Amino acid sequence: MKTNKKKIIVLVSMILLLVSTGVLNYYINAKAKNTDEKNINVNTPSVTLTFFESNRQVRAEGRQEELSILNELIEQATSTEVVTDAQAQKLAIAKAIETEHQLETLIKAKGFDDVLVEISSKLVNVIVKKEGVTVEDAAKILEVILSQTDYSAKDVRVVPYV
Fold this sequence. Notes:
- The protein is about 70% helix and about 10% strand.
- The longest helix has about 40 residues, at about 1-45.
- Helix 2 packs antiparallel against helix 3 and helix 3 (about 80-110) packs antiparallel against helix 4.
- The protein is built from 4 helices and 3 strands, in the order αααββαβ.
- It is elongated.
- It starts with a helix and ends with a strand.
- The chain is mainly alpha-helical.
């Protein structure tokens, strides 16, 4: 009878230890999770890129990749013609970056909330943050583009973005 009592006491003690270990583990994990969430919220604020910011970032990354390829080409070139052509392309990219930034700034100064300008060899695409672009809005944008570039009115595309 005493051996059964001892077995029962040992078994109940082990069950209590197991339950207390599980409860303790639960509270420690819950506390660690709350601490991690607080650290995440404090240290890394939520960043959501807008359409315009996202496209500017993609454009910059693409241009950086182009410049990297041109730099490699210049380093590995065996003819001066290849080097001259690559350097001319790098200069064209730098000029396009500068012109796009300048146009975006000037168009924003005309009263638009946000603007994205993309220049190619044949077209200028202007995306403006506005629900409905009026004829007057398009005229303001066109005036900026024509005064700052060599493109004609038929080469300019204005697209509203809501």
